[in-house]
Amino acid sequence: MDNFFVLRLLDVFKPLFLKMGVDYMTMRRILQVKLTMDQRRKPTVFNQSRKKKDKPEKNEFFKSLWMYGFFGLMLIPFLFLRDNYLFQVSILFSIFMFIIMTTLISDFSSVLLDLRDKSVLATKPVNSKTVSMAKLLHVTIYMLYITLATTLIPLLVSLFFKGILFTLLFLVSFALADIFIIAFTALLYLFILKYFDGEKLKDIINYVQIALTVGMMIGYQVVARSFELVNLDYTIDFAWWQLLLPPMWFGGLFDVLLGGGRSIGSMILTILAVLGPVISIIVYLKMIPDFERNLQKLSSQTGKKKASNKWKVFRSLHMLVSKDELPFFRFARIMMKNERDFKLKVYPSLGFAVVVPFVFMFNSYSIMSFEEFAASRSYLSMYSIMLVIPTSVIMLAHSGSHKGSWIYQVAPVKQLGLINKAALKAFLFQLFLPLFLLVSVMFSFLFGLRILDDLAAVLFAALIYTAVCFLAGGKELAFSQPFDAVQQSGDIKVFLLFLVIPVFVGLHFLALKLPFGVAGYAILMFAVNWGLWKMLK
Amino acid sequence: MSSEVLSITGLTKSYGSKEVLKGIDLKVDRGEIIGYIGPNGAGKSTTVKLMLGLEEGYSGKIEIFGEDIAKQGESYKRRIGYIPETSEMYDSLTAQEYLTFVAELYGMDYDDADRKAKQLFDVFGLAEVYQSRISSFSKGMRQKTLIVSSFLHNPDLLFLDEPLTGLDANSVMVFKEILAMFAGEGKTIFYSSHIMDVVEKISNRIVLLHGGHIVANGSFEELKSQSQEGSLENIFNQMTGFHEHQDRASEFVSIVKEG
């Protein structure tokens, strides 16, 4: 087992942990074991017998870090925006915190809410504070890697152009922001755990994740706009609600320490930048025993589920779901509904997919009148709803109870490929279509019924895209792979698949230039679908 | 030192409005092997989980080694060994990594733990796989790993939940012998299982839980004289009020046969 570099780094803080009542050596050992396990991909049922030689172990996680480096590039322009710290730093931190927080809630919630440890750790003479601390640090370590990957290039750039002082303050602020985000998320979960029970709790956590994602999208817009709208000089009048926007705390911090700002508003923001993270982490540490106790609720099943009949309609729609697919379709639908890890990873992006089209649209709206806008092609932003597809399709191959997938091999199934096809359809009907309809209805109100053919084209494009995402994936059987503690829903593959979306938009745009182009485009897309889904096995 | 290792008084536990344990009273002495049996859902696992501090929110009193577990920290767990029914482990670790890790959680030194674990694995004939990942193990090998992990720190009280799952007949014999020897040395074993023949043979006291109550508590001979039934299986059926196994079986068969 490696002696990880981070752990040696952690040793520096040993006295601090001891003071908090944490059994440091035990915690370190737990962390070491956790990090080791993260490096090992668990073999699945079917290749269990294959003798695993200990190959050089490489955490999948590190392979995906470069992507965050890429995201980080987005921060750079804001370094040079204007010499107004309050503005540039606030914007910069809203982007940064957005990246970190969405990653945390979609990829690491499962670590915070992990119950699997219970029977191994809680039966041993280890106090719950130590276990929770290990858990928190486990997440923190990954967040720090992501933070570093995201900010490395901006930090270097700022070192060259802004000087050492700026860079140092930058670094400290990133750390504070990280602490705040982790403690805030954990506290939020704690709060929900405390007041809700069993099944309901799982749903609520999913809703909160969606709400958070949506909230952050909107919050980001608010921060950006609070400058433009108020004053074109990018100066800003202080208003109380700005205190509620954590990115602005850091704007204030920079304004006071480097920009010489002495306004009361900036002063309060500065204080919050320091106190916010510190207080939130202290409160969290105090509440840890509570957290662990309430976590147990997640495992208890309360209440019986009512069987629903609303999907019986598919029994007669053989065009959509063939008879052979039907059992798998039903199965996949239930799995998606009940699998907590799946929901944890996929639902946040659902919220994202609803909001993004509007964000794109309003960005163009702000430079047009309503009439111009309603007549414009801004509805093409509808394509961004497709962002939800890659993650979901890839996650479909995973399950918390992946070991149950032996049943596929044992049962006399003619074509195993049907499982995947049915699972994809289940995803489309269960998650994608409702989302699509919701946004379509809203768009139809804004742009009028003239866009119906466009909407149809988008839908067909999305179906093609789903098939493409599946074909680009590993093609493992649905629900047959384990969820790893650090699974990147945002790995390289997802990112590359995102790049396919503009191609559809481009084609659609070209089609708009031709008479009846869109209808033709839609029909073409429909035909491609027909072929593609027939082929899919 | 008092010979009482475990004492449960008036233990009740509810999940929501459902009361799982409705007042359990039980005393266990040093060196006893308690066969803890009951139908599915009778509350066996819940009792064990409460004693291990895995679940909270009960009323009544649980004393282990003479001290109320609600009033002390987790240090009492140091002298307890546990084999969970679910056989959950960190199976992406090797047996060596897992066993030393668990032993260290119990406060053992790494080198001691490593040496002992290796020797114990050798005894079970698993020396070769000591450094292989647990995920590649067969069911029996996993179970042996769990057994080693629960005994490694030389505990005084053991909670064993279906510890024989997946073991072959020879290993079962070895394990039964191990339990008898440890009991002879004064270790206390809390053995829950559904395999009645084994419970009948190894336990010196049998506790039968049914519907959240203890309905029988005594040696096999005592139970036999109370109920005039031949085997523990029959006693079990009688005490839990189950007589219709014949009917249930023929119903099952007929449903399978129909179209």
Automatic annotation (TrEMBL), chain A:
Keyword Transmembrane helix: yes
Record lineage: Bacteria, Bacillati, Bacillota, Bacilli, Bacillales
Name of the protein described by the UniProt record: Conserved protein
Top-level taxon: Bacteria
Transmembrane segments: 61-80, 86-115, 136-157, 163-192, 204-223, 264-285, 346-368, 380-397, 427-449, 455-473, 494-512, 518-536
Presence of keyword Transmembrane: yes
Keyword annotations of the record: Membrane, Transmembrane, Transmembrane helix
Species whose genome carries this gene: Mesobacillus selenatarsenatis (strain DSM 18680 / JCM 14380 / FERM P-15431 / SF-1)
Automatic annotation (TrEMBL), chain B:
Gene3D superfamilies: P-loop containing nucleotide triphosphate hydrolases (3.40.50.300)
GO MF annotation: an example: ATP hydrolysis activity
CDD domains on file: ABC_DR_subfamily_A
SMART domains: AAA
UniProt cross-references to Pfam families, sorted A to Z: ABC_tran
Keywords: ATP-binding, Nucleotide-binding
Residues covered by the ABC transporter domain: 6-236
Signal peptide bounds: none
UniProt-recorded name of the protein: ABC transporter ATP-binding protein
Organism of this sequence: Mesobacillus selenatarsenatis (strain DSM 18680 / JCM 14380 / FERM P-15431 / SF-1)
